[in-house]
UniProtKB/TrEMBL annotation:
<dbReference type="GO" id="GO:0006457">
    <property type="term" value="P:protein folding"/>
</dbReference>
<dbReference type="Pfam" id="PF09229">
    <property type="entry name" value="Aha1_N"/>
</dbReference>
<feature type="domain" description="Activator of Hsp90 ATPase AHSA1-like N-terminal">
    <location>
        <begin position="29"/>
        <end position="162"/>
    </location>
</feature>
<dbReference type="GO" id="GO:0001671">
    <property type="term" value="F:ATPase activator activity"/>
</dbReference>
<dbReference type="GO" id="GO:0005829">
    <property type="term" value="C:cytosol"/>
</dbReference>
<protein>
    <recommendedName>
        <fullName>Activator of Hsp90 ATPase AHSA1-like N-terminal domain-containing protein</fullName>
    </recommendedName>
</protein>
<dbReference type="InterPro" id="IPR015310">
    <property type="entry name" value="AHSA1-like_N"/>
</dbReference>
<dbReference type="InterPro" id="IPR013538">
    <property type="entry name" value="ASHA1/2-like_C"/>
</dbReference>
<dbReference type="GO" id="GO:0051087">
    <property type="term" value="F:protein-folding chaperone binding"/>
</dbReference>
<dbReference type="InterPro" id="IPR036338">
    <property type="entry name" value="Aha1"/>
</dbReference>
<comment type="similarity">
    <text>Belongs to the AHA1 family.</text>
</comment>
<dbReference type="Pfam" id="PF08327">
    <property type="entry name" value="AHSA1"/>
</dbReference>
<dbReference type="InterPro" id="IPR023393">
    <property type="entry name" value="START-like_dom_sf"/>
</dbReference>
Length: 341
């Protein structure tokens, strides 16, 4: 939050093309599911792969799941979890029919196209010639599909999101190349920046955990401990800012934990896109908090997904020691003052 006397761009009034979303500050969301389904079906249906082993064609492409593009403070954040499956059919080198199924295992924002994995099954009776075709699908077919997924991945971030980040009046005077709000690398890179990009793109194993903590208070009292800025500052003993609404941003522990509120049902549920400051730009985990009333208490059922394995224990310890125990101690919602100091 801006300090008293400092200019806050949210309160600057000027004539500009994005009057509906000044400074691109507010959260806007665009449903990418229909577009993604149509794009992938057009690209993958009819895709043909051939080698000395034979020839196959992909068909009957099915795309299930959800995909969204979100603009927050002129940055694009993508959330998607799609299931892509299709059939393949063709001929072996000696002219025998062969068919099977192909599935993309992990099409979500956690992974880049080079990390996608595939499952290949064969429906036909196995013979050496048919096994050779299946192996071709597993290797050459997978790479052909990966290339199409890479195209979708790039189009989603550039073409689909055009118009989501609107120019300010000042920027109109000096036209520049369109931006998607995500990191688009130029062709010229020095060695150090390339090394950093490569490191950030390395596959990072992800983990998750669940917690069920009991608090001696009502769901509404506990809910306020996560959305009331002053309460959060009190028990964390650190600077914090919270926009308690869907699409609102939050910053805790002096900016060491930040994110966006994806869903908010008062006294019932909070869903966050959550990240440590040390994580690469654009990397988020997902937190879901459910406030379940009990007999004279409230159970906080927390699920924290998609955390790099290296920070799994750090995140879990942070919730328990720096938030749950401090809330109990500060507001008397527990049986002791453990964790307050």
């Amino acid at each position: 939050m801006a300090k008293w006397g400092e200019g806050d761009p949210r309160w600057i009034v000027e004539e500009r093309p994005d009057v509906a979303n000044v400074n691109n500050w507010h959260w806007t969301e665009k449903n990418a599911t229909p577009w993604s389904r149509q794009f992938l079906q057009q690209e993958l249906n009819g895709l043909e792969v051939s080698s000395d082993a034979g020839t196959v064609t992909f068909s009957d492409v099915q795309v299930e799941g959800e995909a969204t593009a979100n603009n927050r403070k002129a940055k694009l954040i993508f959330f998607y979890e799609l299931e892509v499956s299709m059939k393949w059919k063709g001929k072996t080198a000696d002219g025998k029919s062969v068919s099977g199924k192909f599935k993309v295992e992990n099409l979500s924002e956690e992974y880049t196209p080079d990390e996608f994995e595939f499952e290949v099954n064969m429906s036909s009776e196995e013979t050496p010639a048919r096994r050779a075709v299946k192996e071709m699908v597993r290797k050459a077919g997978a790479e052909a599909v990966r290339a199409k997924l890479d195209k979708w991945y790039k189009e989603l971030r550039v073409e689909f999101t055009k118009g989501m980040i609107l120019p300010t009046k000042a920027k109109q005077a000096t036209p520049s190349a369109p931006t998607s709000g995500v990191i688009i690398h130029s062709e010229k890179k020095d060695a150090s920046s390339s090394a950093v990009e490569k490191k950030e793109k390395e596959v990072q194993p992800r983990g998750s955990f669940e917690m069920d903590e009991e608090f001696l208070c009502s769901p509404s009292d506990l809910f306020q401990c996560f959305v009331d800025e002053n309460r959060v500052k009190a028990y964390t003993q650190a600077d914090a800012s919270i926009e308690a609404k869907m699409g609102g941003s939050f910053s805790l522990f002096g900016g060491n934990v930040t994110g966006v509120i994806k869903d908010l049902i008062p006294n019932e549920r909070i869903v966050q896109a959550w990240r440590f400051k040390s994580w690469p730009e654009g990397m988020y985990s997902e937190v879901t908090m459910k406030f379940v009333p009990g007999d004279g208490c409230t159970h906080l059922k927390l699920t924290h997904n998609n955390i790099p394995d290296s920070d799994l224990e750090r995140a879990k310890e942070g919730w328990k020691r720096h938030q749950f125990e401090r809330i109990k101690g500060m507001f008397g919602f527990g049986t002791s003052l453990a964790g307050l100091m």
